[in-house]
Specification:
By secondary structure, this protein is of the alpha+beta class. It has eight helices and eleven strands. The protein is elongated.
Length: 282
């Protein structure tokens, strides 16, 4: 049966296909779990993270579906996780084991990055403070920076550099992190163009670990119902092509190569045409 949601490990697989580094991870399907065999593979460090993968558990941490354990207790915790979510039908698909990534949770060190497909503007990229209080912070303090996709990396970096997040990173001597964030415009732009079925794609948070790696630590994506993404495609055209034409048109409007002003009069500097022309030449 087709799902309209992509789980965290599936989001990691998609990001990895476009060259984005992800934490080491292993998905253990519920139907294939064998406690006697334990968890295969080695993970860096002394601790690992165990997460429930379930269709009806949106906030895993609040539901008790995220646990950090010592590596030698990994198998026992996987057993316990399956047992805790067995009593109710959460749509449990399995358990995800990931490496434990040490990082700072200071303001600005966690970033929420999302792509949402808008009917009016096509795919839109948002970058804001990440973490558990990201939505409250964006609503009450500093709103997200919004970009239409596709957007040039240089344009995204310039905007971010002038933002509160950019000023904070410069103050800490971490201005190079703006390059990591700017590259997300290309990453999410390519994903949006190649996967028109995706309506929402969110990473919360992206972090920089102690070794400087830029990594996603959680992710979720949604796709349109079967057939919905393709039902408006004209004969002989793909949805991706149609979406690309739409984005190109919007970008040409926002970032024109030239502007024509018609009806400028030399008789009065106070007329609207002269004012517009003066502003353009300023």
């Amino acid at each position: 049966m087709r799902r309209d949601i992509l789980f965290e490990h599936e989001v990691y697989a998609l990001l990895g296909a476009y060259g984005q580094a992800t934490p080491k991870h292993l998905f253990i399907p519920r139907d294939e779990w064998d406690a006697k065999s334990g968890v295969p593979g080695d993970f860096p460090g002394d601790r690992v993270v165990v997460k429930i993968v379930a269709e009806h558990v949106a906030h895993k941490q609040k539901a008790g579906g995220v646990v950090i354990v010592e590596a030698d207790r990994l198998t026992a915790e996987v057993v316990s996780m399956f047992e805790r979510f067995a009593a109710v039908d959460f749509g449990t698909r399995g358990v995800l084991v990931t490496e434990f990534v040490p990082y700072s949770d200071r303001l600005g060190d966690e970033v929420l990055v999302g792509m949402r497909r808008s009917r009016e503007f096509g795919p839109v990229l948002s970058i804001s403070k990440g973490g558990d209080d990201a939505e409250l912070f964006a609503a009450e303090f500093v709103p997200a920076e919004i970009f239409l996709l596709p957007s040039r990396e240089t344009r995204v970096r310039d905007r971010l550099e002038a933002s509160p997040l950019g000023r904070l990173l410069r103050h800490r001597g971490a201005e190079a992190r703006l390059d990591d964030l700017a590259r997300l415009a290309t990453l999410f732009g390519n994903i949006a163009a190649d996967h028109p079925e995706l309506t929402d794609f969110e990473i919360n948070p992206f972090v920089w670990d102690r070794e400087g790696r830029f990594l996603p630590l959680d992710g979720l994506a949604f796709r349109a119902a079967a057939g919905e993404a393709a039902k408006k495609a004209a004969p002989g055209e793909t949805v991706a092509k149609e979406a690309q034409e739409q984005r190109t048109g919007i970008l040409a409007f926002l970032e024109p190569r030239g502007i024509a002003v018609v009806g400028v009069s030399a008789s009065s500097a106070g007329k609207s045409g002269n004012i517009i022309l003066g502003n353009l030449l300023a």
